[in-house]
């Protein structure tokens, strides 16, 4: 991927191609008009499209304003996707001299389209979102018209964009049959071709242009390694290597490339993609081992291109199959939806409550004989009912992936949704207590069954705080269930429903501690490497130190992540003060007080103070990040893991006994 990025950005310095401006049947005419509109947007406005991470995050007003300005461009882009062909009047005979800046501009359009789809999904305009996705799907067939490898690869990138957007919509169960058909039809048409991304034609054109460049007078002095580097996206071709070659040696390298390219193009035409990959691997191995050919980096690029092509085709075909199954009612939309979407809706709704109401909920003693405060009773009878409905819907969806609420470059030790999830459990427990006290036993049992199912979902999150919360929520839920069981409140139907929800909890790794511990260690090591290894000078012991990091306890890993989280916040201030770019922080704010019964807040506060005390030193280039300060333990993970196993065994025995009694 790095090679492709270098390739794209190096060739972007060349002049913008002129589309056939008056040919309305040519998609390039409309694309160019869209590009012209997009050029009127500022850098900051373009950046808002990159920084919007999807409909689970609240859009900024700046994003809405930028998309409003981009709508004419998206209209032209949509018109273009309806055309049969796209010719930007490229002269492929010019080899590396082909101007390709239209690809960067089309990618900007794709980013604006992606942001527009995400915003429409956030706002509930699912039909508009489906129309935009359908347009992006139609556009994929036009990239092969350039007959350039880089264009085919950009087509692959667009297919990844669109598939992620379809996945997002399916996560939300947003699309009706008409939406699915609009998005599906262009995908099915696209895959009717034996080479939908146009790699065969692109490689043939690239081979001819490269040979023309290399064979021009068969003169070593005429070969410029910098140009070849631009062409291949590789930084391993050295002009000095060419300067030492005789003309005969150069001819031998060129002949080897020519012969190998014939074999590569044949491999790309193979209908069986697995066989094609195997043949490509043999070609690459043979080429690299035979002569250590000077043009080997070019062959490596083509091998990576095949991997990208095969993966993209497989992904598109899998998506077609899934959408067809949805349309044929072979799969229920809820079965492939994402429970986290509904949980996050509940979290967002709670965040909008009055602070006093939330404080009352957090301070309520969650026992059967507790008095329900008036403010909590008002919440449960009012807006809290809709929040509970969100959670109920999510708990009945089998798949749950909270990664949609996390940003790829951010590694907070406390994901922003965890405190909100703690409050959702409090809401369910309070409502179960209220229902039990007024004699609505069915509703009380249903609320507690929901809690068990949400615990199961949190246990699979792979985040340590999610595992700790799942364990805490289980304990509170089970205390209520246990009390009602031995007080003979449940009938057989209640016991069956509660036991069925309880049985979803895994026995091998209760609450996901093992997975979360492994993920926490890996994340801590990566984050520490990010902050440390790139800035440590002449540290021969660094590999040993990082090996040690892999064996840190989960407590240490969590503390280390919290430490670096404080450093990151200070680093943002440091960058801003020096007029440098600051990575966007789009995670919603949350109240740490919501986790007062999940983690020891006093120890966490102490760690934050310790981190702040040396953060200014850590912003200096000479600071040795591998010597991080002594860490404190504030979660006692090993003890909690043993408690988890014991708790599940006791719970299973209780339900077994209750079932026998019933």
Give the SSE layout.
Elements: H1 2-11, H2 27-38, H3 43-51, H4 61-81, H5 101-123, H6 126-139, H7 149-171, H8 177-190, H9 199-214, H10 225-232, H11 239-243, H12 247-268, H13 273-291, H14 296-327, H15 339-351, H16 355-363, H17 374-381, H18 383-395, H19 417-437, H20 441-459, H21 464-486, H22 492-502, H23 513-532, H24 542-549, H25 554-577, H26 601-618, H27 637-661
Helix pairs in contact: 1-10, 2-4, 2-5, 3-4, 4-5, 4-6, 5-6, 5-7, 6-7, 6-8, 7-9, 7-14, 8-14, 9-12, 12-13, 12-14, 13-14, 15-18, 15-19, 18-20, 19-20, 19-21, 20-21, 20-22, 21-23, 21-27, 22-27, 23-25, 25-26
Write a concise synopsis of the structure shown:
This protein has helices at 2-11, 27-38, 43-51, 61-81, 101-123, 126-139, 149-171, 177-190, 199-214, 225-232, 239-243, 247-268, 273-291, 296-327, 339-351, 355-363, 374-381, 383-395, 417-437, 441-459, 464-486, 492-502, 513-532, 542-549, 554-577, 601-618, 637-661. The protein is mostly helical and 662 residues long.
Task: Provide a descriptive summary of the structure in words.
The chain is an all-alpha fold. It has helices at 2-11, 27-38, 43-51, 61-81, 101-123, 126-139, 149-171, 177-190, 199-214, 225-232, 239-243, 247-268, 273-291, 296-327, 339-351, 355-363, 374-381, 383-395, 417-437, 441-459, 464-486, 492-502, 513-532, 542-549, 554-577, 601-618, 637-661. α1 (2-11) packs across α10, α12 (247-268) runs antiparallel to α13 (273-291) and α25 (554-577) packs across α26. It starts with a helix and ends with a helix.
